[in-house]
Each structure stands twice: as structure tokens, then as C-alpha cells.
User: Fold these one by one.
Assistant:
Number 1:
Amino acid sequence: MFRKLIPTLFLLALIPGAAAYNPSYSMRDLFISRCTGEIAAAGISRQSAADICACTFNQISSRYGSNWP
């Protein structure tokens, strides 16, 4: 299940969304919010989903820095 989840999370990060309409949201907040909703819809608790999404964002950020949205 998680093997398919990581590419999905990465694609979510590339989709411009609420940040275009509300600049007070950081990319991290937007990513975690959208990601949590997607994972929770798959049946994982919202807290676990938020933890997974935060970890994913941190890993991608540490690897790619500012070279990704």
C-alpha cells in the first residue's frame, strides 16, 4: 500500500491549490493538509495520516531542498 502512496504524495505536492488563493498557507501546511485528507480517505486515522504526511514532506524537503514546489 505504501509503495503506491509515496508517488501519490509527491504528485499532491506538485498540484497548485489553496496557496494560490490564500497566501497565508505555507507549502508545508498545504501539502500536509491535502495529503492527510487523501490518506485518511484510504482508511488510516487522521493522526497517523498527518504523521506520515509530515514525515514525507520532511524527507522530500531534506533531499531536494528548494528545488521542488
Note: The CA atoms of residues 14 and 32 lie 13 Å apart.
Number 2:
Amino acid sequence: MRPKSTNRDLPPRMIRVRKTLKSGAEWVAYYYNGRDAEGRRVKLPLGQDLNEAKRQWAKLECQDIPADTGLLRFIFERYEKEIVPAKAPGTQRDNLGSLKFLRKVFDSAPIDS
């Protein structure tokens, strides 16, 4: 199976559908892209919220439910893993020091607030 070319942030067999409405707003929904007993493709709706869709996906795949990605902790971890290594050594030290203090206060804060 070749790697996904899009939606790499989603688990296997989970797809994101984006549509632009007449108003110009973007509608996003998540689907499980599985197979039935005869081998035909089945697209099951998982919802419009990413966290809830991942929970539904985990139930369908019989996997552990993923950690809640709606918290700033997830953003901090991703920033530290993906962005900080691409910076200069001095900037890396500064960013990691800043993250240490930010995590004390905002680690469990929801992203939406």
C-alpha cells in the first residue's frame, strides 16, 4: 500500500472531504474508507469534528482511542517535534525554554478558547 499523498495527518483508511459552499464557507467532514465483506469500498461518515471522527475511527479499527488533539498540549508537542529542529541552535534553545513556561499554564487549555 503506497503512502497517502494528502491528509497525512489522518489515520489509515480515514479521509477528509472538503466542499466550498455557495456562501464561500468551507464544509469539512471525515469518512472511514473501508471495505465490506465482498471487498467493495464502503464510505462511512465519521462526523465533522476531527477528535470525534478519530474516536469513531478507533472503534471501527478496534484500536486504542487517540489522545485528545483538541488541547494546546498537542500543538506544543507537534511544534517541538516538527518546527523547532529546523531552526538554528540558539533559536531552538529559546523556543524550548519558552515552551517550558507556556506548558505550565496552557498545556490543558482547549484550542478553541
Note: The mean pLDDT is 86.
Number 3:
Amino acid sequence: MKDLSDTFQEAVKATSFLKIISNPQRLLMICAVMKSPGLTNGEIASECDLSISATSQHLTKMCDEGILYKQKESQKSKYYVKEKTTEDIVCALKKAFSNE
């Protein structure tokens, strides 16, 4: 049986994750990166109809939280989903709330 302190730590981690993806713009950005891994800040901004500045702030926050990671290629940074768990959760949300 799991120790309650372990369960609490998992709850804290889950809450932090849910807090980040509860922002519709961030969730849309994650979907864009899932659809086309390796997008740049500008490409994500264009895809999600956001300013580059706002996109940059959201990307920084999601990278800091370990949801996305960036890989520098030449002069540009490309973004990827860090964990398959993120993709699984986002797919479950899409399925649960889809109108199809």
C-alpha cells in the first residue's frame, strides 16, 4: 500500500500540471505541438493566433513545468511535448469534450 505522503506528492504534481493546461491558449499550443512536433515560437503563435510575446511567455512556463521542451537548431528553438503522459491526457480531453 502506498504511503499517504507519496500520494500527496503525486496530487501536487497532478494539480500543477492541470493548472498549466487549464489555460485554453496553452492547451491549444500543446495541441499544435502534438500535431506538428518541432514548431518554432513564431509558427506556434501563427497556428494559435497569438502574439509572439504571449506565445513565448506560455512556452517558457510550459518548459519550466516539464510539459514541453525546446531544442535549439541553428538560430531557432523548436518545441516538443516532453512526456507521452501529456499527449495521453490531452487526447483524453479531446475525446471527452469533442462534438464529434
Note: The mean pLDDT is 93.
